[in-house]
Amino acid sequence: MVRMILVAAALCLFSPGLQAADPSTFLTSPSSTESRKGLEEKVVEHTLKNGMKLLLVERHSSPTVSAWIRFRVGSVDERSDERGIAHLLEHMLFKGTTTLGTSDYAAEKPILDKIEETAQALTLEKSRRGKADQGKVAELEKRLAELEAQAAKFVIKDEFFELYSKNGGVGYNAFTSRDGTTYLISLPSNKLELWAAIESDRLKNAVLREFYTERSVVMEERRRSYDADPESKLWETFLASAFLTHPYGQPTIGWSSDIQNLTRSKAEQFFRSYYAPNNAIVAIVGDINSQAAINLVERYFGSIPPGKELAPVTAEEPKQAGERRIELVAEAEPTLMIAFHKPAILARDDYVFDVISMILGNGRTSRLYKKLVIEKQIVADVGVFDAPGSRFPSLFIVSATPRSPHTAAEVETAILAELELLKNEPVAERDLQRILNKIEYEEARRMGTNGGLARNLTEYEAVAGDWRYMTEYRGKVTTVTAADIQRVAKEYFTRENRSVGFITTKGGELK
């Protein structure tokens, strides 16, 4: 599915301090020939001997470039004792290397080793729970704090950020999802070698310093943004209930018990195994010479050995055999989510779901917005989206915020009625054409910035197996018919395939 990758809203996002780039900063106006077949002619592909995939697009309208590195490893690839490790690594890889982020690594390393030894002993003792020796726990905690204070004397904060910032870099950031992990930057094109030097050093020589301090930061993030936030808590519970077997049901940040048992040794092993050239896709878009950029990447990244191939995710979610209803009682405004299992990207029905999504929830002219927000005025807002990933079968979700005094039950009934219309009344040809026109617009908008194009090249190369998915997409959608929409609605929008999640105000009537 050609999705809008809403990094700040939909994914776990981390930045060490640099503000996100203003999209207009690196705006380039694509010509009409740059879409679809035109783009295929512009993308230069190159694969290094170590397996790193390189995608380049020359755009000479401004002396800028965007560089994105997408690793094919996300939280869906974690084992049960690693949950949350990809997200924590996203934080840790901003901490520096053997030469960056430290004033004296030779003096720092012995202390880091002692920190790990102490932290492992502390984690083991705490894992005994009620049988733990509390005196030993207190002693180890004190020792760990002392060692961390010693190590902190060598730390140079945010040195990656400072280097990029001083050299005109903007939008320096990263995000982790269930499907992958991405690092990104936009900078003047004459600073591309700086990017290559920094990022190759990070792959070769990353030091996970301040690990346990950062683990505490993530624990606090989890408490503040998930455990204490009713909507986020509902979302986590909702996904965990919708996926009983597949790891899509596990939160990217990890559960609290997962995070508190992660160790630096385990994170380093995960990093060395999978954050490697053979699991990386690099997109460089902007004012470059393609061959010169290839030579540059070869020079800095070519000597890095490949890592392990990711083990396949073999878990398959069994077919749901009955409606699942998830209620959260909280001091919060009512919220409603309705989800149906759907196929993964590349499946024929995934394109049909894209069309259904646009019919129901794309903008103020969509059916749900017109019916529920404007006409009936029973919701404050309504949205339609796919989550939590694309690589594997996922969910088609409708979410809404009831407008007082209307209830979640009333809104649920209205939404289900609109889904029934899709089963029983063919969508008009003019509505299908309107959707194609919107796709044409969105296609041009997605390619309107260097960063936007780099994002989509890496995203679809990773989740669809080929970046050409984005150029072939419109042609696939044009084959979707009104009969396809009715067939998919009848097959998937069933009670047996449905999950419903809602918040009931504390003290209010249970639904």
Strand content: 15-25%
- The number of helical elements comes to 19
Uncertain runs are: 2-34
Structural class: alpha+beta
Largest sheet: 7 strands, mixed
CA-based shape:
globular
Query: Radius of gyration over alpha carbons?
Result: 24 Å
Kindly state the mean pLDDT as a whole number? 90
Strand order of the largest sheet: 1-5-6-4-7-3-2
Question: What's the assembly state of these chains?
Answer: single chain
Residues in helices, as a percent range: 40-55%
* Total number of beta strands: 12
Gap from first CA to last CA: 34 Å
Could you please describe the fold and organization of this structure?
There is one protein chain. With 511 residues, the chain is of the alpha+beta class. Helices cover 45% and strands 16% of the residues. It contains 19 helices and 12 strands. The strands form 2 sheets. Strands 1-5-6-4-7-3-2 form a 7-stranded mixed beta sheet, sandwiched between helices. The chain has a 5-stranded mixed beta sheet with strand order 8-12-9-11-10, sandwiched between helices. Helix 3 (85-92) packs across helix 11 (264-274), helix 4 runs antiparallel to helix 5 and helix 15 (408-424) crosses helix 19 (482-492). It starts with 6 loop residues before the first helix and ends in a 6-residue tail after the last strand. The model is unreliable at 2-34 (pLDDT under 50).
